[in-house]
Design goal:
Blueprint lengths: L1 H16 L8 H4 L6 H11 L9 H19 L1 H5 L9 H8 L10 H14 L7 H15 L2 H8 L11 H37 L3 E2 L4 E2 L2
Antiparallel strand pairs: 1-2
Helix pairs in contact: 1-4, 1-7, 4-10, 7-8, 8-10
Pfam families: RLL
Organism: Pteruthius melanotis
Family: Belongs to the RTRAF family.
């Protein structure tokens, strides 16, 4: 879907890559503009993406790799020393859950975030974003079994057949993030699902607006 793709690109730039200053992101954020492809092409050149605008999958993979590298670079010390014992405790979970009460299920950022996770984890797309979120939770839980954690902690050589060097590099970084990030992701997914279900179950909710009325 073209709109979802554009929202995803905007979300990556706004939340992770942040190559442009906020005031310079207007053209990229204007996803309904006829000139958006030109703005996106310029953005690709500005971040030195080696692929053409027609190569959608390769471009997405490259931008995700860039986002991962930047995320790791911003928090290198945190991730370098991360262990399974560094998972969030119950008190922190309760504090973090409160903002999700105001979650807007129709928010493009929410949809783009779920889509980004689904793409990273290679989960099939679904029209219902809550269904995709649940699928992501199941996959994360499976990867957090004792078996999976033991394997993740072992040193493994990245596949030599990886198509692009940037994905190869991203894979190495993701392995460093694996245990702590999966645990934190599982907590956030559970919180998001609870919040979304609470909104849907509330008879006062206007689903067309994604907001709670009086």
């Amino acid at each position: 879907d073209e709109t979802e793709f554009r929202n995803f690109i905007v979300w990556l730039e706004d939340q992770k890559i942040r190559h442009y200053k906020i005031e310079d992101r207007g053209n990229l954020r204007n996803i309904h503009s006829e000139d958006w492809p030109k703005s996106f092409e310029k953005y690709m050149k500005d971040v030195n993406c080696p692929f053409k605008i027609q190569e959608r999958q390769e471009t997405v993979d490259w931008l995700l790799g860039l986002a991962v590298r930047l995320e790791y670079g911003d928090n290198a010390d945190k991730y370098k020393d991360s262990t399974p014992d560094g998972a969030k405790n119950t008190e922190n979970t309760a504090k973090n859950a409160e903002p999700l009460i105001n979650l807007d299920v129709n928010n493009p950022d929410f949809k783009a975030g779920v889509m980004a996770l689904a793409n990273l984890l290679q989960i099939q797309r679904h029209d219902d974003y809550l269904v995709m979120l649940k699928a992501i939770r199941i996959l994360v839980q499976e990867r957090l079994t004792q078996d999976a954690i033991a394997k993740a902690s072992q040193s493994k050589e990245v596949c030599t057949h990886t198509a692009y060097a940037v994905i190869n590099e991203a894979a190495q970084i993701l392995r460093l993030l694996h245990i702590e990030e999966l645990r934190e992701l599982q907590t956030k997914i559970n919180e998001a699902i609870v919040a979304v279900q609470a909104i849907i179950a509330d008879p006062k909710t206007d689903h067309r607006l994604g907001k709670v009325g009086r």
